[in-house]
Amino acid sequence: MSKPAYKRVLLKLSGEALMGDDAYGINRGTIERMVADVAAVANLGVEVAVVIGGGNIFRGVAPGAQGMDRATADYMGMLATVMNALALGDALKHAGVTARVMSAIGIDQVVEPYVRPKALQYLEEGKVIVFAAGTGNPFFTTDTAAALRGSEISAEIVLKATKVDGIYTADPKKDPNATLYHTISFDEAIAKHLQVMDATAFALCRDQKLPIKVFSITKPGALMRVIMGEDEGTLVHV
Ligand code: UDP
Known about the structure:
Blueprint (H helix, E strand, L loop, with lengths): L7 E6 L14 H15 L4 E6 L2 H11 L4 H25 L4 E5 L8 E2 L2 H9 L3 E5 L9 H11 L4 E6 L20 E3 H6 L7 H9 L4 E5 L5 H6 L6 E4 L1
Parallel strand pairs: 1-2, 1-6, 2-5, 3-4, 3-5, 6-8, 7-9
Antiparallel strand pairs: 8-9
């Protein structure tokens, strides 16, 4: 078997990816499938750190957050990512993977705090890390947390797992002629106004020369094909 294309990756999973076809929350079958994909990659010796979103839980409480102070609502969103991270850590454990959850906000009785040297040590030991609470700051997103943590741990690539299989020339739901980009440069993506990640996350990856691969986590075997360097999804390169 050929060798993985990467030694260390940062996987960004949106909270909504955990919902499956449910309206909100965590779908058991979906999280188990996802964890099996992550386990297969980790078992190859690839060092994996995951940044998990919170949209699946926060969306459920968002109506109640209307009119709320933005920073307060964002802290609620970050707490939602902590719940997802705990579920993911637990599912990884059941799949036989040693995982550590690290939080960007202090919640020590529940999750250990994010400490960079400790995170690097875990990765070197072959443990999967789940980064919870995004960047720890309101007004940011977990995409930005992925770019930030990816840069901090010197990941070779940010793998942005979505429900679509990459970046298209136009919205494939609206335009039947839309085609998938296999590769695209940061500059081209900006010039064409393609939304890859939010602007802050995108700018950070570009500055740090950290490539992004956008792919579908719902497609069987896609994560493994990405890891093996096969033509899957869209690669945003420097
Ligand atoms: N959030 C935040 N700071 C961060 C990361 C997340 O304030 O560094 C909040 C923000 O309110 C966001 C929510 O947490 O809407 C959930 O994160 P995100 O929307 O990125 O999750 P995803 O869409 O990937 O599930």
